[in-house]
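Recall from the previous lesson that a structure prediction takes nothing but the amino acid sequence as input. Here we apply that procedure to Methyltransferase domain-containing protein from Microvirga arsenatis. The sequence below is the only information supplied.
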Amino acid sequence: MAVTETLKRRVPLDDVMEELARAERLPPRDEALARAIAIVTFRRLGTLGHALRSRLNKPPKDERLMHLLAIGAAQILFLDVPDHAAVDSAVALAQEDPKLHHAGGFINAVLRRVAREREQILGESDPFLDTPTWLEERWIAQYGEEQATRIAEAHRSMASVDLTVKSDSEAWAERLGGVLLPTGSIRLKERTAIRELPGFEEGAWWVQDAAAALPARLLDPKPGERIADLCAAPGGKTAQLASAGAAVLAVDRSARRLQRLEENLARLKLAVETRAIDAEKLEAEPFDAILLDAPCSATGTIRRHPDVAWTKSEEDIRKLSALQGRLLDKAADLLRPGGRLVYCTCSLEAEEGERQAEGFLARHPEFQRLPVTPGEIGGWSEGITPEGDLRTLPFHLALPEHDRSGLDGFFVARFVHKPS
Ligand SMILES: C[S@@+](CC[C@H](N)C(=O)[O-])C[C@H]1O[C@@H](n2cnc3c(N)ncnc32)[C@H](O)[C@@H]1O
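The prediction returns the following tokens.
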């Protein structure tokens, strides 16, 4: 079961789904349904657990049985699946498992009760129910109660699909029936098969969250500049740098992910040099500019990957922030005097954002901050901090169409090496 595997191994749901689809040779339709069920189960895991536990005299000790109930309840409460189909599929899954095959009657009774009490369960509206306590506490400490509540609320909705285009964004927005956001990305109005949209085959655009498109824009790449993208795969930001005409070296520790970058850039007809190596060990001539999109806890992407909330820990944040500091120091070494550095993470955690920027400037007096101005991002100022960094939050960029609002949580800081 993908939910149990993801939680047990603390790995991304996407990886588990990929393995499962391959092992069980799932047809694409079944895989898409299984993925949608797993995603909504993670998105509402707290609500589901609370609803189930409060309806059971003695919650079962076997966690797989609890997960089976959660998956069934998620379909009944949050997906367009008929109640009887959700109950039948949960009972059928239990019957395939030698340890659970006696539980059919129990599953049937619990899920039918969930279906009967749907309105009451959905009326329980505390958004923090779907946020693990350690994250709730962190966000309240960092952002205050009101903003933390809005973050948790935003995580209950699916993220929109945004595209970055090589050029002619207005014309493409019209052709694709999307909205041109102030920051320059196109937001699709409907969820659709991406590969069938006009422009996919010819490589005119790529999928990239509106916030994820900002760091490369803020690096302001110029034709012919030598730019290193130190944590590059799968290549959304590399594509922006290359399409601006820069000579890009795309570095990533993972050869498998770098291969995906190469495939993505081939579709976009963009050429870059690639190197599968730990960026800490990279030896190269000094660069004009560097983009460091460092590995992080990814808590800014919980709308897209709700499993992140339940698989990451304080320990991950501690380890990742140490790595981010080392990568920042390495980036400083690789820049020419006068060179620019953009550091970013898709994390909501200060240790991976604001604290990194402070620490970097304290360790490297030869650098100064190059503050972000609204004019560089289409006049959008909501995310700019008093220090001149960018801190986007999942509830920012509210649009009149509520279900199309929001963007990933990112931190972006820009530095320049003071010319000697
Ligand atoms: C946040 S993702 C990058 C996303 C990418 N910049 C994009 O826009 O598509 C972080 C990447 O860093 C890579 N990575 C992690 N540690 C690394 C290291 N020490 N050196 C180089 N790459 C590393 C991971 O393999 C992963 O692909």
